[in-house]
Amino acid sequence: MPKVGIIYNDIKPVANDAAQKLRAKFEALGYEVCLATGATGLLGYSHPGKPVCHTPVDSLIPPGFEQDMDFAVVFGGDGTVLAAFRQVAPRGIPLLAVNTGHMGFLTEIYLNQLHDAVDRLVAGDYEIEDRAMVLVRLYSRNCLSWEALCLNELVMQRQPLTSMCHFEVKIGSHAPVDIAADGIIISTPTGSTAYSLSAGGPVIAPGVPVLQLMPICPHSLASRGLVFPDSEPVMVTSATPEALVMVVDGNAGCYVVPSDRVSLTRSPYSARFVRLKSPEFFRVLREKLGWGLPHIAKPTSVELP
User: Fold this and answer.
1) Residues spanned by the domain of 56
2) Is 193 annotated for ligand binding?
3) 296 in any annotated domain
4) Which residues form a coiled coil (predicted)?
5) Cβ of 66: how many Cβ atoms within 10 Å?
6) What is the mean pLDDT of the chain?
7) More confident residue, 292 or 194
8) Which of 19, 131, 205, 240 has its CA at a distance of 20 to 30 angstroms from the CA of residue 285?
């Protein structure tokens, strides 16, 4: 019996309803259906009394979501999609993302397109686009104390009462650099359209094998963004006396003290997006962010006097 998965945002009634209806549809078509909420993909935030909230990467996989699963469908916004990929990436399961949120930059279709999409999924009429992910690890006293899969970005920043921060960043075998700023963002090409874009970083096409380092409000005219190969491991330490906050993909984080080391390496797992039409990144930029739209009306013809 073929197997499919459904992941949904259980705090949104529309996502709940859509998940139950899709489950019934797939079961009527002879599929075994595994249902899970996106909540298990949220690693949670630590707090001063418990500075580390550690969940191993492989323990986030929902029951039944194994490598024999043909594909899965996720209902939610971008946050749910990010959480869902942390759940299924270790098993290599492709995800069709259905937008029940707001912008839905990472989603493929809207709810009103789901009927036709199911027909194409069953017929195998789709493509798979692989997006790079990053494995983020926090080491305290040389022991692994926190880890997460990252599809968008890592952000390390000051707490509200902390002054400007100093970061030492070492990329591969290159000499370490010191950055004085409110924080830093290290993003994948997928994450280049998220927080990094708001901080003034460039948009990077998904297929380019790079990472991007962006300072947040740097206190130097010479401290600007850097793009480098994702084959280079990254190590970040803090030279700030106070504890800093590290957040991955906007919904999981922990505290970082000066004796800690944060490691970033390209993950062996990738985010596998189900595409119902050939991936066209510039089209998504135009539709979601308005990139490349003309600012003035162009004449359709020229009339000579």
Assistant:
1) 3-131+269-289
2) yes
3) no
4) none
5) 12
6) 90
7) 194
8) 19
C-alpha–C-alpha distance, residues 138 and 98, integer Å: 33
Query: Are 47 and 105 found together in one domain?
Result: yes
Query: The domain that contains 59 carries what CATH number?
Result: 3.40.50.10330
Check the annotation: does 163 bind a ligand. no
Q: Which of 10, 70, 78, 249 is catalytic?
A: 78
Do the Cβ atoms of 168 and 176 come closer than 8 Å? yes
251 labelled as ligand-binding?
yes
Give 115's DSSP letter: H
Query: E strands of the chain, at which residues?
Result: 3-8, 32-37, 44-45, 71-76, 95-99, 109-110, 127-140, 143-150, 153-157, 165-171, 177-181, 183-187, 210-216, 226-229, 234-238, 244-248, 252-256, 261-275
Tell me how far apart the alpha carbons of residues 45 and 21 are, in angstroms, rounded to a whole number.
33
In a domain, 240, yes or no: yes
pTM reported for the whole predicted model: 0.90
Task: Please tell me whether 43 is known to bind a ligand.
Answer: no
The pair phi, psi for residue 104, each rounded to 5°, is: 60, 50
For 35-62, what is each residue's pLDDT tens digit?
Answer: 999 887 776 666 666 656 677 888 889 9
The DSSP output letter for 287 is I
Distance CA(81)–CA(85), nearest Å, equals 6
CATH number for the domain that contains residue 195: 2.60.200.30
Q: For residues 238 and 258, is the Cβ–Cβ distance under 8 A? A: yes
182 is in an annotated binding site: yes
Q: State yes or no: is 70 an active-site residue.
A: no
Spatial distance between the Cα atoms of 86 and 253, rounded to a whole number of angstroms: 14
Distance in angstroms (rounded) separating the CA atoms of residues 97 and 78: 9
Q: Residue 302 domain-assigned? A: no
**Per the structure, how many domains does the chain have?**
2
Is 194 annotated in some ligand binding site?
Answer: yes
Residue 249 lies in a domain: yes
